[in-house]
Amino acid sequence: MPRNIEQLRAQYNSVASNKKQTGPQGPRGGGPGVRGASGKPKDAKKTLSRLVSYAKGYTGRIIAVLLCMVVSTVTSLIGGYMLAPVINKLTAAVAPEMAEKLSVLEERVGNYVGAFASGVLGSDGVFTYIVAAMIILGTVYLVGVATTYIQSRLMLSVSQGIIEKIRNDLFEKLQRLPVRYFDGHPTGEIMSRFTNDIDNIDVMINNSLTSLISGAVTLIGTLVFMISTSWILTLIVVAFFPIFAIGGAKIAGISRKHYVSQQAALGAVNGYMEETVTGQKVIKVFNHEDECIEEFGLLNDDMRDKQFKAQFWGGIVGPIMGNTSQITLAVTIGVGGILMINGLLGAGGLTVFSQYARQFSMPINQISQQMATVFAALAGAERVFEVMDTDPEAADREGALDPGEIKGDVRLDDVTFGYVPGKTVLKHISLYAKPGQKIAFVGSTGAGKTTVTNLLNRFYDIDEGRITIDGVDIKDIKRDVLRKNIAMVLQDTHLFTGTVMENIRYGRLDATDEEVIEAAKTASAHSFIMRLSDGYNTMLEGDGANLSQGQRQLLNIARAALSKAPILVLDEATSSVDTRTERHIEHGMDRLMKNRTTFVIAHRLSTVRNSNAIMVLEAGEIIERGSHEELLAMKGRYYELYTGKKELD
Ligand SMILES: Nc1ncnc2c1ncn2[C@@H]1O[C@H](COP(=O)(O)OP(=O)(O)OP(=O)(O)O)[C@@H](O)[C@H]1O
Ligand SMILES: [Mg+2]
């Protein structure tokens, strides 16, 4: 039964690009306020000031940018004005009495052009006058072009510098976050901070800030020019202004609302797409294609609807404003004509004024449109800073030490732990492993086996009790030293993009090629690697997608084999390997485990038989312990797991 549109929208909007989700079904816990270019910042002022703090060190360049912006805006205003003396000169040539009827500014600029024509070009003629005006105009525009060029280059260098720093800070922070953070946040949510959110900040710094500042300068500059050309006409334009402002804001508000829902619909479509692509095999296995097509249809329909509204309202602002400004223009020209007849304004003055009057509403539009981007960027910045403010993995304790050579005596003393407060996963676990011993954990799914290993290398810190290595509490050992001494084959394998050689060398970066090959042989990986197209130089892509599950595990074992750590943890290390290969590995594994304290977790009990001690975990408690024979003799849970028989009392 396909879900309805409300369910789909709610579920998929927040999980877009969440790589961990593979199947088309299952719960989808979306984090609050993730995704999309929408959203309102919670504390715009604080976020802005924090962003500004990133601009430190760019003060000189930013001042230069501002200066360039002012100069280029002013030059475009002056350039526009140069039309006035030219028109006035031409009108005066036809009707000499017009030469007297000019505003103060027109007269002054006209005199400058005249002085330039006669002084530099050496003639009083109309033609020379126009050439003089053109030369001035050209020079002014040239300055404008130059400053715009410098300004955009400088601004780019500032914005890219800031973005690079933010990206670096965020990545650095991610490397310092505890495992708990990654367990609690979907991959997609974290990724979208790197992509969407940072992109939004980039757009804001680069486009919006420039537009906002140049919009403001243009607005003020235009106003100054308008007032000095004719204050009466300026009053008329300003009187019309509230119509623009209110109307513009109204429409912008409507369009923003639709834009937000468009983004939400887009997020849902993307999320659904991604999940169907990653979960394609599962979809095929369960014949869910038709449901998927139907559900996608609903989402797609929804998106078309939202996009129509968003783009309609977004696109309508410009034309409406344009038409309204024509009314202002008509009134301006009418009143301007009367002023002209009365000698308060020349034809040139009226022409450039009508240009300015039209321009006047543009920066307002520009500013109101950019505000949406600015808010989206600030909301994005808030999400980025939120990650940066998350507590990193707790620093090493005061006086944490490097105990030097570790023999591998591991003790868990009455350890109690829960991932979330109030929900204990492990209860009063006590055990010891002497150096070189092999301890196995068996038990049903979800019993807490992996959790024990998570505690050993301090992915999580225990709530109660003590874990010691060679008698030292692991909380008193420097974390990097601790992890260097524990080689782990995790239950979920991961291979990085790179060659087979590089991937195995991840276990110990200073290992030679020979050592890597030796480790591969220990893990029984050598023969299959040699059969790969480029042997050890074969590139692995997408978490080793070009390998089989078992082959991936073998590479992970090789990685651990390369490490010289005295403690070894194997969590279902051979669960995907066939029994024959497993037996084959066993020999190598024995060598690997020799002289190392080893913790083995396996569902396949044949691999744990020869352990020094086997712990049977059930619901977070060790319910049975002993050697294989002892446990079988007990005829308890282990016996049940091993033989598949339940002993009747
Ligand atoms: N990151 C986590 N956050 C919260 N609870 C978790 C987390 N990881 C595991 N758990 C819970 O802790 C319990 C023990 O999980 P654990 O992974 O240790 O089981 P396991 O014995 O390794 O099982 P399996 O044999 O399936 O690997 C489970 O109930 C699980 O739901
Ligand atoms: Mg497990």
Question: Quick recap of the structure?
Answer:
The chain has 649 residues and is of the alpha/beta class. It contains 21 helices and 12 strands. The protein has 2 domains: 43-389, ABC transporter type 1, transmembrane domain (ABC transporter transmembrane region fold), CATH 1.20.1560; 410-643, Rossmann fold, CATH 3.40.50.300.
Structure explained in plain terms:
This protein is an alpha/beta fold and 649 residues long. The protein has two domains: 43-389, ABC transporter transmembrane region fold (Up-down Bundle); 410-643, 3-Layer(aba) Sandwich (Rossmann fold), CATH 3.40.50.300. It has 21 helices and twelve strands. The protein has helices at 5-13, 44-54, 59-81, 83-94, 104-119, 126-176, 179-184, 187-229, 231-278, 280-285, 289-341, 347-389, 449-456, 479-484, 500-505, 513-522, 526-531, 549-562, 579-593, 628-634, 637-643, and strands spanning 410-417, 426-433, 438-443, 464-469, 472-473, 486-489, 498-499, 539-540, 567-571, 597-601, 613-618, 621-626. A six-stranded mixed sheet has the order 6-9-10-3-11-12, with helices on both faces. The chain is elongated and about 125 Å long. Bound molecules: adenosine-5'-triphosphate and magnesium ion. The site of magnesium ion has 4 residues, from helix 13.
